[in-house]
Design goal:
- The complex is a heterodimer.
- By secondary structure, chain A is mainly α.
- Chain A contains seven helices and two strands; from the N terminus they run H-H-E-E-H-H-H-H-H.
- Chain A has a two-stranded antiparallel ribbon with strand order 1-2.
- Chain B is mainly α.
- Chain B has a domain of 41 residues.
- Chain B is built from three helices and no strands.
- The chains are: A mainly alpha, B mainly alpha.
Chain lengths: 233, 111
């Protein structure tokens, strides 16, 4: 198995339903905010980011004794195209995975969207802004801050999962034990997520820093002539 | 300076190419160990009520292609389909979102 998100049956119906409603509300708001803020030339870039996150999520890397992890991608998407479009991009990845690839239960889709798309793109982006501020306004600080924020995203997701499990878990187990092992393994996964995200953001910063949402106001503004029409065709 | 800047189209094509290369050359070698959540679930016994996904018998379930026994080939084809579908869906959705761009409410007509 190449990736696993929350399957059907981990968490009870009511909790899954509430998560689904939360997800729908935040996605609707994200659509509205994206419509307000998305630049026309970013339209294909958001598609690329989603496709890229899909590909990266297939690449499970070993973390510790018989355990693997994969990128969640929320921070990567948010830093590249902004938290609103980033949340939408990762949500579509999760929907495609659930519907086409049977990865993640259909009833758990809301939980998975909350934990990976929304926590990553919004909370993770908040961490990114905080770290970027601490590091100062420079191009290298963007990739570094993205990496640090990406490190925290799986850990935050594991905490949110534990809360969801405490509320609606279908098996009576020690929440403390679940919390401990979830956080332990996701710290390790976070290291991978941080490295991959820093490399990917660094690569875009090296080619088209003007396309990096999280670098706005950091890099020098492009001269007007260079910002001339860029064909999408 | 004066390094020619990659156009958006070229940037997107290059990015998709990298995604395709990752799927073709890296995905078949991805770790098959249970991932973090799966491992924790098994260790803590929270997976006793797991039900298979309603689409678990789908043609691309578990990132493979039904009736393709060559595992790496199945992974690659499934991954390429996933990359293409994800790109198309999000590109299309963003295009529609832009089309229905939010505009400030119309000013009330004076008089």
């Amino acid at each position: 198995m190449l990736a696993m998100h929350i399957p059907d049956g981990f968490i009870d119906g009511p909790t899954s339903l509430v998560a689904g409603l939360v997800a729908i509300a935040v996605i609707a708001w994200s659509l509205r905010m994206t419509a307000r803020t998305l630049d026309e030339r970013e339209v294909p870039i958001v598609g690329l980011v989603a496709a890229f996150v899909f590909a990266l999520q297939m690449l499970n890397f070993p973390v510790a004794n018989g355990t693997s992890g994969h990128l969640l991608g929320g921070v990567l998407a948010a830093v590249l195209v902004g938290p609103y479009a980033g949340a939408l991009a990762v949500t579509v990845v999760l929907v495609v995975q659930a519907l086409l690839f049977a990865d993640g239960g259909l009833s758990a889709l809301g939980l998975n969207v909350v934990n990976m798309a929304l926590v990553g793109a919004y909370a993770g982006y908040g961490v990114f802004l905080l770290v970027r501020r601490l590091l100062g306004r420079s191009a290298p600080s963007v990739a570094t801050a993205a990496g640090v924020a990406a490190f925290t995203a799986p850990v935050l997701a594991s905490i949110v999962f534990t809360v969801e499990y405490a509320i609606g878990g279908n098996d009576a187990v020690s929440i403390g034990a679940v919390a401990g092992s979830m956080m332990g393994v996701h710290v390790l996964i976070g290291i991978g997520e941080g490295i991959i995200t820093a490399i990917a953001v660094g690569a875009v910063m090296a080619t088209r820093p003007d396309l990096v949402y999280g670098a706005r106001g950091v890099t020098e503004p492009e001269p007007a002539s260079a910002a001339a029409p860029v064909g999408v065709s | 300076m004066a390094r020619r800047r990659l156009s958006i189209a070229a940037f997107v094509v290059a990015g998709l190419l990298v995604a395709v290369l990752l799927v073709v050359f890296v995905a078949p070698h991805a770790s098959t160990s249970p991932d973090g959540l799966e491992k924790v679930a098994a260790d803590n016994g929270i997976d006793r009520h797991v039900r298979p996904s309603a689409v678990a018998d789908g043609p691309l379930a578990d990132y493979g292609v039904k009736d393709v026994d060559h595992e790496a080939l199945g992974t690659i084809v499934a991954g390429l389909i996933g990359v293409a579908v994800t790109f198309a869906l999000v590109f299309g959705a963003m295009w529609l979102v832009r089309l229905r761009r939010w505009r400030p409410p119309a000013e009330p007509v004076a008089g």
